[in-house]
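Hi V.,

Quick status before I head out on leave. The structure for the redesign project is tokenized and pasted below; the design run finished overnight.
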């Protein structure tokens, strides 16, 4: 089969190499899946660079999120078991963690209705307890993680403020349904949030960016607000001033979605059921900005790493839906 492999760490476009290798052999409790679509996530970039908390042995195939097909023809969503990731014709995954692919979504959309949306659902509902009528601020609102949070926030009845970088991404954020869009390259984010909220600030802030975005969050969060720390796509890991959280009465909430697979997998299934229902009634739909063939995967992963993409890029198998 064909598969992209990383033999040394570095930029995805330089270290990902397409090779003909044997199909992976499933271990105990695992299944072999034919990859129908693999969604590109920022962790794929970080793993290529050797900067992710999970470091698969070299050589490895990136691709942490797929829509695949079982040997009996079922369409499923899975997180491949590394080092046999999803940027290949076949991958392996834990049988107990397979989720049914929603019938309302095609292969690329189904592949994207997993990590980003699960993270958004757990962040907004499980951690921050977002309520209808509250104001939600989403950093990187036009990106893969941010776009999911925007849709989930609107589905929950929140007023959504999207922060983006550039006019093109601002247009995408508006199409996603953001009530207010702030271009951080052209506007003062904190001042714009205060203006949009009558000086109150945002009740919930969803931050997959870190760095300067977190600094803005601390200044723009409302009394008894909640900042959900999802990741550090900017590369900057902030050091929160806890005295500031104390005097302003806000909460800083960490979210590592992968822990739920270990600590409480039943909640992951419950979340998937909620997401499937939202997708079925059209309340959410993954934003797939590009569908590329397997041969273009490395270049696509590099674009995600360069921060020039919107929504999700999906690597789609030939003939897949």
């Amino acid at each position: 089969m064909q598969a992209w492999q990383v033999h040394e760490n570095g930029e995805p476009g330089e270290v990902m190499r397409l090779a003909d290798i044997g199909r992976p052999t499933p271990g105990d409790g695992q299944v072999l899946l034919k990859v129908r679509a693999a969604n590109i996530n920022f962790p794929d970039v970080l793993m290529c660079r050797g900067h992710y908390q999970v470091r698969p042995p070299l050589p490895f195939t990136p691709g942490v999120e797929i829509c695949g097909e079982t040997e009996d023809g079922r369409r499923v969503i899975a997180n491949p078991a590394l080092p046999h990731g999803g940027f290949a014709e076949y991958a392996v995954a834990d049988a107990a963690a397979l989720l049914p692919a929603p019938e309302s979504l095609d292969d690329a959309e189904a592949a994207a209705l997993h990590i980003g949306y699960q993270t958004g659902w757990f962040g907004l509902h499980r951690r921050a307890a977002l309520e209808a009528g509250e104001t939600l601020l989403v950093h990187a609102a036009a990106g893969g993680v941010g776009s999911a949070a925007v849709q989930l926030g609107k589905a929950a009845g929140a007023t959504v403020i999207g922060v983006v970088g550039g006019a093109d991404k601002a247009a995408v954020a508006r199409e996603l349904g953001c009530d207010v869009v702030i271009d951080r390259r052209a506007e003062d984010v904190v001042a714009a949030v205060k203006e949009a909220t009558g000086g109150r600030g945002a009740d919930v802030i969803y931050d997959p960016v870190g760095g300067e975005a977190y600094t803005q969050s601390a200044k723009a969060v409302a009394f008894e607000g909640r900042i959900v720390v999802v990741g550090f796509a900017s590369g900057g890991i902030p050091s929160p001033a806890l005295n500031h959280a104390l005097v302003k009465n806000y909460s800083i909430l960490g979210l590592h979605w992968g822990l739920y697979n270990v600590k409480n997998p039943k909640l992951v299934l419950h979340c998937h059921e909620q997401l499937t229902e939202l997708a079925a009634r059209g309340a959410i739909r993954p934003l797939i900005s590009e569908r590329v063939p397997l041969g273009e995967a490395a270049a696509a992963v590099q674009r995600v790493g360069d921060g020039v993409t919107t929504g999700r890029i999906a690597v789609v198998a030939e003939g897949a839906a």
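Above is the designed sequence. The first strand starts at residue 2 and ends at 6.

G. will cover questions while I'm gone.

Best,
W.
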